[in-house]
Amino acid sequence: MRRAFTLFEVVLVLAILVVLAALSYPTLESMYGGYRVQAAADALRSTWAEARTHAMEEGRAYRFSAVMGKGNYRLAPDTADFWSGNAAPDAGAGNAFIDSSALPKGIRFRRPDSPRGDDDSDTVLPGDGIDPAQWSPLAVFLPDGTAKDDVAVVLETSGARPLVVRLRALTGGVSVRPLAEGGR
Q1: Do the Cβ atoms of 167 and 81 come closer than 8 Å?
Q2: How many domains does the chain have?
Q3: Is residue 183 in a domain?
């Protein structure tokens, strides 16, 4: 005669599986958050390299701006035609490269000296609803391959360690490091 499992034994095994899943979920979520922040840093590095390339190839400065506290960013030539809020730049703009995009969902920009944002609200604004005054210029890439200033920006999400992405103005080099405990 074969012995079967009782209802109590089946429920007990399911309860143990639920407890193990509940204990491992925070670890998996923070690990996934870390991967998302790293992916955002890689996307930012790529966008900055693209800005530098376009500035050198076209012989005009390109500006990278972001909405602080959100994940939206924009890359366009550094002229008022592209940043004043006009629907279309003047005809003299030529074949300018414009990239209006956002970091992966849940990732926010912030300055290294500003407090950490624990806001769990949506991190991406609708592309057509961004007022030109909301854009914070972070970097201007010059035609000679340099940038106007050194730049540091923090990429963060809840549940993961923030990363600092730094742009060195003189060389155009970009480095990514975890945010130090002191906030810088």
Answers
A1: no
A2: 1
A3: no
